[in-house]
């Protein structure tokens, strides 16, 4: 589905990612964990075309994706939910969701909308409410729902649990599992390494823009180096 091969990227001539290799297969949740400033967000931004790679290649569904504009990547099925959510505050839940469907034809919008409401029933209840009046957890659900409206093949989530209570974090991560089970691959960046690793089919640990460890999520959660560095154990 997605392959990064020797990816290098950074800002204003400062290199942040160093020859990063990473893969997401169909049907997988892949987690990207690591400390502050390890380059997780930069990796997502490079994949979604916001940051231009300086070297290496990105392939998505068999086609080169580096140097491709973000809007075109969305049309190809690669959609990112940014950490800051970027909702349209004064617009209603319903309007925000429909904005996410700009790549879709009219007849698929209604069925996708009901899939999103099925995943997050609270959004159906609040559909006429302005996005800015939702709680933090509901806003995160709306941001994910809006991304799903584009019918992605691969959904990239940047720290979806930011600012959420442990209970809501579980609710959101549980929805991520359902999304995977419905056939959407997920690349998940999480500060909360313990929960991300338990959820992920596979995971990569980033340090200073390089991958230092990778493997099945639950296996990494048991790894002594990971436990010491990221799980505080
Ligand atoms: P966090 O969990 O703190 O968000 P991260 O692993 O997502 O960390 P990145 O946000 O990718 O890390 O940041 C990696 C490095 O790139 C950091 O040193 C950061 O200061 C730098 N950086 C991020 N965004 C920019 C920017 N727009 N301009 C310059 N440097 C940046």
From TrEMBL:
TM regions (residue ranges): none
UniProt keyword list: Amino-acid transport, ATP-binding, Nucleotide-binding, Transport
Coiled-coil region(s): none
Database matches in InterPro entries: AAA+_ATPase, ABC_transporter-like_ATP-bd, ABC_transporter-like_CS, BCAA_Transport_ATP-bd_LivF, P-loop_NTPase
ABC transporter domain span: 2-233
UniProt KW ATP-binding keyword: yes
Signal peptide location: none
Key word Transport present: yes
Gene3D superfamilies referenced in this protein's UniProt entry, alphabetically: P-loop containing nucleotide triphosphate hydrolases
Family label: Belongs to the ABC transporter superfamily.
Name of the protein described by the UniProt record: ABC transporter ATP-binding protein
Record organism: Blastococcus deserti
Lineage: Bacteria, Bacillati, Actinomycetota, Actinomycetes, Geodermatophilales
